Amino acid sequence: MGDEQKATHPAAAEEKSGASGRRTLTFDDVETLAAIARAGHRSGNPYLPEMASVVEVIQETPNIKSFRVRFTDDEVMQSFAFEPGQVGQLGMYGVGESTFAINSSPSNNDYLQFSVMQAGEVTTALHQLSMGDKVGVRAPMGRPFPVREWRDKNLLFIMGGIGSAALRATILYCLEHREDYGEVTILYGARTPVDLTFGYDIEEWQSREDISTIITVDAEFPGWEGRVGFVPTVLEELAPEPDNTIAALCGPPIMIKFCLQVLERLQFADEQVYTTLEKRMKCGIGICGRCNVGPKYVCVDGPVFTMAELRELPDEL
Amino acid sequence: MKFLKESDLPAFLEHLSGEAAVVAPAKVDGMVRFLPWSPGTEVELEALLARQSAKEFIFPQWETFLKFRYLMVCDAKRPGTTEDAKMELRLSEEGEGGGEVVAVPAPAAHELLMVGAEQQAVSQVIFGLRPCDARGFVQMDRVFGGYGGFYFDPYYHARRSVATLLVVSCHEPRSTCFCRGVGGGPADAEGADVLFTRVPEGFVAQAFSDKGAAVLQYPGFEEVSEPQVAAAEQSKARAEEMVSVPFELESLREGLRANFESADWQELSRRCISCGTCTYVCPNCYCFNVTDEVVETQGERLRSWDNCFNPSYTLEASGHNPRDAKPSRFRNRFNHKFWYYPEKYDSLLCSGCGRCITYCPTRIDIREVLSVMGGNETRAAGQAAGGAGAADGQVAADAKVGGDAADGEESQHGR
Amino acid sequence: MSDRQAIIRELAREALAEGRIDCFVGWGPGYDGSQVIPVFAKDAAEVEELQWNPLCHHNLTMFLKRKMAEPADARIGVCVKGCDSRTLVALLQEGLVDRERLYIVGVPCDGVIDRRKIDREFAAEVVEVGVNGDTVVARTAAGAEKHFDRPALLLDQCAACRFPNPRVADDIAGDTVPEPEGEPVWPALEEFESLSPAEKDGLLAAVFSSCIRCFACIHACPVCYCWDQCVNRSRTPALVGQRVETPENLMFQLVHIFHVAGRCPSCGACDRACPVEIPLYLLHQKMNKELYDMLGFEAGVNVDDRPALQAFNLDDPFGQG
Fold first, then answer.
1. Could you report how far apart the first and last alpha carbons of chain C are, in Å?
2. Where does CATH 3.40.50.80 sit in chain A?
3. Most buried pick, A199, A280, B336, C303, via CB within 10 A?
4. B286 vs B59, B64, B325, B411, C144, CA distance in Å?
């Protein structure tokens, strides 16, 4: 992305306009988002991946690995920008691509991080990657979490299992801009302690006094001294106040289902609750047709949606 | 407007073939299809519709997005070498004393050479399109053309921008035509660079774009006469009258939205076998797949036609499939064409050609589906309750196999 | 013969009224006077649409495959001609349909009209077909009319049919028809087998250049019951690639032919479903002739048989002459 395009990036625009004309990125600002989404693609071909090298592989859990990748073109790496919640197509030439949230912080100029659970053809191949291997990246894509709209609100992040990957970039961003937000609570649960990702982050979050971090596992586990309970149960116990609060959740469908019920009981309005969807994707740019939920494509109209928006959509998640 | 003598058509096409690849409908083995034309090929214009649309010439059934090749270099064996050579990743040799020597590649020993696919396209002239065929391109242009600030598809655009569409208006409809039902018509010029209308001994030709005007510069065109213009208008008007409007379009989008959970989808999709024929013969179904095809260390990333009836179209790696049941996939096609696509791109995704009805193995009728979904409860004309069976002793003309016509009347449909 | 239609309607009506089935699958009128389509009748009014005539070509047992019928546990009445019943026998041989939930109405058949043989004779679209005894009348919308001799219009397979009566049925719609005796004959193959290998290659290349991988053949085939998980769609392993061109298309079809071998009675449903008229019946017949010559086996004849390629006998002539 050249300087020209960087100048139109909303974050940059805001920095330029300063106190007088803060340009708020609205959820409906499709044009701008499309420009952001296109920004990473050179030569005007949105199907052409950008070559990147694997610089680090982290075994998060037995079946989840995080890959830190760096664009082979340094200029691209330096000028790459994305909004928290946006995704990318990470692929191997000869195997194919799959969609993952970019879960490194947007302020990170050294690498992009993607966390991959081994499940199918592409993810199994990705799990064979080692340092120095070349991958293709098409990013950023999709509609992000509207983190600037959330300013001065309390934030409640609810995550289960690999769902943490979808929210990590957003959490990191909000923590980097901590003064812009009210209370910040992170609730993260997994089946067992072994299934918790981002141990390196959890430690840091738990050590911070200005945020509340609750880690839980589904059942008692040898050596685990922390909280025990399913995420929805713990959420209910926490009983967060809905006033001026945004809840962002991601995790297994069953967890989301029950958490939504809890949030409803706690009187959270549909507009206050955000989630991020996943679907089988191919093009990632709203053309191939397959990732739709009713009239919305998860790849361009999402993956971030509010509950209010999801209620409008037909039931084919 | 100009006039082209029927007998001059081959010379006209030959002239065009000097600068572009010409495609025209031709009959081979009893089937009419759009095929590359060369001098001597007879153009088939009696049959109304080619079996498939012409979309494959601008949106091919498969094409290469990019190519890639892995070069492997083993630094321990040949340090510093980046020559174009394939080597085994691990080399094993018997060392002295019988031990095994294994050469392990240094980190970052993989070097990847990738070539982006070219998007050059050959200029094409497609002659003999019907208005519904041409309209299909106009409808698809939106999704591939970045309408509404979405992405722009350079592969489609490369072919589309150098294609000239020469449309021949229809003289009569097939029993499955419903172009007027979707806002089109048998003599519509939408998408046409030139519209040809058959008149005695030739065609009246009218240009609708700069490309079309350039085509009409061909010296073989004659000045058009008043009677010829009048004959063309008459032919168009007559054809227009013959196409029925089998469902109401106004209420359709709302109807589809309201009927998403309706049990009617189960009923309507019962005889559907979830193949994909309808989508592949359609002038504007465009959903596609992207797959990597590899032989040893090199390969290509391909785009190929896919369709929402494919049972694994939406199958996720977890095993979850949002559209696992056949009725849900069936529903998706109609919703996409008449609700989702219009909502996103301000255009229908159907031009009423009726091929999906003709070639469906069980003759699923889109008109019936849309009638029911649009709130019109009765079935579309042509679908009878209680068809007449063949009866011994009756006069042959009365012994119809199916359809709704009472004895002695012509079938309602198409009139 | 025409009372077969009345009998089918009667049987369907009774089975529905008595609550023995949820739905009856037969043939009925299509979108114009020349089309017949599968019909799912659920009440007396819908039963009145059911027809029987020589255009009733669909093999309705394709709807008995897993995940074709909704709901999955429906009790289904189904009409079968002789050839259709053989695919049903093949499904029963492998335990793929629950006999308890089926009500089978067998329809003895003296031939199905090949619609293509009519269409080929007209420049314009045929919108009406009437059958009266051995005379068939076809008409276009403009009124152009032609008369045909019914026997000349039959599907190629009907000329060689040795199982015109259903092999399995709960009730039969009318009298059975005479059944030819003797060994199978393969008239469709005479010309094909006289071609040299190079000529055969040429023929296959020509016809498979038209294939559009629509999967109509596979989905229409009653014994292609993996249909929604077909190996031809598989990416792991990817046996067939996405280059839709002759070598891959031929591989695609060969996978289908070999997979159904031993269960395919050459009902021709695949051939009729193909939108580009690839001669699939011919190719399946060739496979079946090879099977017959090798193992003396014909698919779908007796429910108690095992499909030839799922049984091994030490006397099997593999590798011999």
1. 46
2. 154-276
3. B336
4. 8, 16, 22, 34, 37
Tens of pLDDT, residues C7-59: 999 999 999 999 999 999 999 999 999 999 999 999 999 999 999 999 999 99
- Please indicate, yes or no, if residue C231 is contained in any of the structural domains: yes
Task: Convert the pLDDT of each residue in A227-237 to its tens digit.
Answer: 999 999 999 99
Token reading at B367: 């008109």
Q: Would the CB atoms of B310 and C147 count as touching at under 8 Å?
A: no
> Which residues in chain B come in under a pLDDT of 50?
75-76, 78-109, 378-415
Contacts of B275 in chain C (CB under 8 A): 214-216, 218-220, 273
pLDDT digits 0-9 by tens, B1-13: 999 999 999 999 9
Domain check: are C195 and C293 in the same one?
A: yes
For residue C295, the enclosing domain spans: 2-112+154-310
State the average pLDDT over residues A114-136. Answer: 92
Task: Please tell me whether residues C34 and C147 are part of one structural domain.
Answer: no
Cα angle A101, A107, A109; round to 5: 90
- The shortest CB-CB distance from A316 to any of B299, B316, B323 is to B323
pLDDT tens digits, A22-80: 333 333 444 444 455 454 454 578 898 888 999 999 999 999 999 999 998 899 899 99
Q: What is the DSSP string of C179-201?
A: ---SS---TTHHHHHTS-HHHHH
Partner chains of B (3+ C-beta pairs under 8 Å): A, C
CB-based contact (8 Å) between C57 and chain B?
no
Same domain, C227 and C250: yes
Distance from CA of B402 to the nearest CA of C (A): 4
CA distance A90 to chain B (A): 14
Q: In what order do the strands lie in the sheet with B222-223?
A: B31-36, B21-28, B124-129, B163-168, B194-199, B202-207, B2-5, B222-223
Whether C242 has its CB under 8 Å from any CB of chain A: the answer is: no
pLDDT reading at A163 higher than 50: yes
Hey, what CATH class is A9-141 in? mainly beta
The residue among B264, B310, B267 whose CA lies nearest residue B287 is B310
Residue extent(s) of CATH 2.40.30.10 domains in chain A? 9-141
b/e burial code for range B125-163 (CB count within 10 A of at least 16 → b): bbbbbbbbbbbbbbbbbbbbbbeeebbbbbbbbbbbebb
- Write out residues in chain C with pLDDT < 50, as ranges: 1
CB C232 within 8 A of CB C255: yes
Q: Are residues C128 and C275 in the same domain?
A: no
Same domain (yes/no): C122, C206: no
Strand partners, B114: B68
DSSP secondary structure letter of residue A181: S
Give the pLDDT score at C2. 57
Residues C176 and C230 in one domain: yes
Q: Which residue of B65, B294, B322 is in closest CB contact with A316? A: B322
Clarify whether residues C97 and C214 are in a common domain. yes
- For A240, residues 6+ apart whose C-beta sits below 8 A from its C-beta are A154, A156, A185, A247, A266
CB of A241 less than 8 A from some CB of C? no
Q: Report if residue C132 sits inside a domain.
A: yes
Residue window 358-377, chain B: list those with CB within 8 Å of chain A: none
pLDDT value, residue A228:
96
The answer to whether residues C14 and C163 belong to one domain is yes
- Cβ of B225: how many Cβ atoms within 10 Å? 13
| CATH of the domain spanning A154-276 | 3.40.50.80
How many structural domains compose chain C? Answer: 2
Q: Considering only alpha carbons, which residue of chain C is nearest residue B278?
A: C214
Cα B341 from Cα B285, distance rounded (Å): 11
pTM: 0.88
Decide which of C100, C129, C153 is a domain's last residue.
C153
Matching residue, tokens 């799922």: C310
Summarised one tens digit per residue, pLDDT across range A287-296 is: 999 999 999 9
